[in-house]
Amino acid sequence: MFFSKFLLFVSAIGRVTQVVGETPAGFTPATDTDLIVTYGQVATQNGAEVAEDAVASQPDLATTSQLSGSSYAVIMVDLDIPVDTEPHTLLHWMQTGLTPATTATAVTTGDGTASVFPLQNTKNTPALADYAVPAPPAKNPLSHRYVQILVDTSDLSAEGLEALQNATTTRVGFDVAGALAAAGLPDSAVVAGNSYSVTNPGPAKASELKRAVPETRRMVMRAPEQWDAEWKVRRQEQQQQQQQTSRDGGSKQLPPMSAKSNETVSVGVFERNGTIIIGVFPGNKSLPSNGTAPGSGPTVPVVGGAPPSLPSSVGWTTGVVCCILGLMFSI
């Protein structure tokens, strides 16, 4: 089994020309030493674009120079997951207990003959973080960079190993430099690196894209009877939402209905399904301002005059317009 996999590994190396396995620009801890990463017969060097189905299982690893340590670990991280917080990273793999070959294996490349030193998990050490297949979602960015680093863990203490294990409990936002520091491993322990990219063909889902402009809301005027009827429906919807939230163990404040009134006119405003619904009532109607049914809430004075069916003035019109605008932006 090992021999057949190794032949595939050698075959892949044989098709690579002047590979450079360094970590991408801006990544820390950085290295410009080659880490050879192959998936079957697919080599993934120097930021190469790789098909998602080609990276479905964990890769084989090797270095182009002999390593002097006794034990190594590989850490693989996605640098481009679509989250709003920094860092935009996801831990894909952390495997300790890798031992380097002590003799080189000669392979033929496009430029002649080269030597590589494979790394193997000869003691079948369990992974601290199992290999997670790179699979960028249909969200921006569609193309993700995956970086792999090889870390010398020859002098890693039991406490340091525990620190690495603890760091893997949170894969999203994984901090490579922080995890190594917590384990007592300096940046110089990173001895080789590589990166490649996998791209989702897209398109990015529209629902996942950030809105470029704020969502606008419609505003409609209702007759008193229709306003009352729609408010009762909205109130029932709010109560159902609150009951569902309570059953789920949470708490939720119901959005209020704003109301203003004086001796000659009352204005009620609420929002339903993205629409601002406004009702203007002749007289001092008791409108709810605390989520109760129409007719049972307190009234709040507002400047104004008679409704349009009564003698009106610019002052009244201005007062109602200001009232409506004020209520609209307060809910």
UniProtKB/TrEMBL annotation:
It comes from the Eukaryota. It holds the Pfam family PBP. Gene3D superfamilies: PEBP-like. Coiled coil: none annotated. InterPro entries: PEBP, PEBP-like_sf, PEBP_euk. Keywords: Signal. Residues 1-21 form the signal peptide. The keyword Glycosyltransferase does not apply. Residues 229-265 are annotated as: Disordered. This is PEBP-like protein. It comes from Apiospora phragmitis.
